[in-house]
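Technical note accompanying the year-one report. For the benefit of new consortium partners, we illustrate the data format agreed upon in the data management plan: each record pairs a sequence with a structure-token string. No post-processing was applied to the example shown here.
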Amino acid sequence: MSQFERTSVTAVLGPTNTGKTHLAVERLTGHASGMIGFPLRLLAREVYDRVVRIKGPREVALITGEEKICPPGARWFLCTAESMPIEREVAFVALDEAQLGADPERGHVFTDRLLRARGREETMLLGSDALRPMIKALVPEAEILSRPRFSTLSYGGARKLSRLPRRSAVVAFSAEEVYAVAEALRRLRGGAAVVMGALSPRTRNAQVAMFQAGEVDYLVATDAIGMGLNMDVAHVAFASLHKFDGRRRRRLTLAEMAQIAGRAGRHQKDGTFGGLHEQGPGAFTPEEVLAIEGHQVPRLERLYWRDGEPDFASIDALVASLEAGPRDAVLRAAPEAVDLAVLKRLAEQDWVRARVRSPAMVKRLWAACGLPDFRKLGADPHARFVGRLFTHLSEANGHVPHQWFADEIARLDRVEGDVETLAGRIAAARSWAYIAQRADWLAEPAHWAERTRAIEERLSDALHASLTQRFVDRRTTMLLRQIGADASNLPVTIGPGGEVSVEEHHLGHLEGFRFRVAADATAADKRMLLAAAEKRLGRELHRRGVALAEATDDALALAPSDAGDRSILWGATRVAILERGLTLTTPKIVLDRTLDVLEPPQRAAVQQRLDRWFASQMAAHLPPLAQLDSITRDPAAGAPLRAVATALLDAGGLLPRRAIAAQIEALDAPARTRLRSIGFTIGTLDLFAPALLKPAAARWRRLLMGIVEAPREGATVLPRGDSGADLAHGFRPLGQQAVRIDMAERVARAAHEAREGRKPFVPDPALATSIGMQPATLARLMAQLGFRTARSREGEPQRWVWKGLVPPRAPEAAPRDGPFAALAELGLRNG
């Protein structure tokens, strides 16, 4: 008795390259009938072609959302998981990549097939070893077989694109990233084939055929290659370890990393994996490397579930059953998928409810909602398209109008345009191909299925040609293979201005650490020279890295304050940027990405040099802020002084007294003395360091705080509304003018020196006039200082009397952005 006859359900678990799919195909063809569900249309098509070669085209069916090849006597079915006709009785059923039941978007489909899809004689569940506890919990009768990997998978380290070995696949996680990597490989290595899940099988097969035939040595793909697509790949390089999963950008799970890395090596050939980055978020951790090499992936604790046999009694019953929770503890309700989101939007419309009054029509509506959003439009636009489709399906004879269908696909039957345009047309064509596969939606479904298939094939051929033209240069590939390592010996020269040329051919410009290719250097006859130039540039980049690490303070500077960024410049080259740190005086100095071309020890030396330079600039230009930072970390300073220092530091050293009145009152004499000793004035209205108002210090302060606008240099009074006429720049708004806070404090001192207790007095207007304050401005300032007008005889100067400062009101709401929101409101209120 064979091991497959002992039980009707068998789970075959193990990492990639264990022959699980091959085993399933053997078992399929050994039965009188059978069916396998796959995660990808491309994989279903690939295995369909294999089974056709064994059984013949009349015996084998292919069923996907957009493509149905179903001969009348077909006995073996290759399907996508969503398209499996599980109500059909066959002797053998298999589900590939069953661990996808843990995928938030499609997991409920795989869980449903795992629970309900069964063969009459044998059922086989294929997947990662992570699925083992789920099999034991949900299919306890299953016999679990473990399959070891045929070859060794090992970590090959991080390698730049220019140093990738031949027969490498670079995996990226967006179309934009795929195209960027493919373009770089074209420039460096003559080209690459491109494989993405959104490609049609025809385009994908043509691209893979180039790679398999050796016309190109590199393949750039999305994570679609992790789902069992068989290619002769020796090394898998991750362009990134993060992906957008439809809801957020996140780091790949260990299981996803292992699935993709496992594509390296085929059958008995060993494979390697690695990244394109040695450090940072794109680098593997040692723990991840060990787990992937040892095929140790975390065991799944939950699978997503949605009722696979929902209630069609009414729309509300259907929605309720699709939103119902699972009964099994290891299952969790699936997040709202696009089909359910579309259903709920349509259910809100009266015309839909008016037409859906029977279970049969509910089923028809649900079938229309199942149209995938191939174009990735989002739930609302896709719901409008489905709504129009259902309008036709629910009236007259229930068929999509011939003219509408014909007009829509005619718009797509054009092969001009770039890669992105053609890919968009194919995505749109897939929607119409899906509609054409529904026999009850069209009067002549076979005719329209053939029309859409022909259009998709024409677009696919055009896309393949466009991809090849854009990302493959066969002549460069051939030349690079001929010259090999001797490319570095070609005569490359770098001029004093950074001009890069090879044998008098201008190739581009080296600007700092970035090489910009000349427009005329993209011609096919210069590809080999360009690749040679980039090899030679390494020496010049190393020399520049040494020069930067040894640069003098005068050679480094912050970008101009009106540039709107916080860049550190080396001459005219941006080499780093200041990012927010724990405090204003301790920002993070992040090296510019262009410096990634340097080796790690050189980058470390540059980092240390920039850290030292910034510390020296702080000591030279902003010593009060540096000393404030020391106080915030000094336990001996006492809590009140540390609180004041922290608030001052957050505000850049300029702070209205009312904002922290309670903390100021709590300061004892030694604390006030220490604050004054580091240059701060505890004024009547403001706390500030006069040194911070000087032009050079003010400029540095603005750069650190990310303030772009600046007040007129040297001004003591500004018109209200002028650039910088606010408290953040050290100017107190007072009616139609804004007065620099140190000048306002001088007026305050003069007023207090002139008064005698609380007797009415006339302040000397000379000081205010010399500053440039208008009488109305002086009056507002006097009021803010706690003075009130006293009765004066007609013709006499205005007299004032001291009443005292009004205690600050409790804030009505929490500040929106640290102290500055409250300060801005305070300034406006007092002005």
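Partners are asked to follow this layout when depositing records. The longest helix spans residues 445-471.
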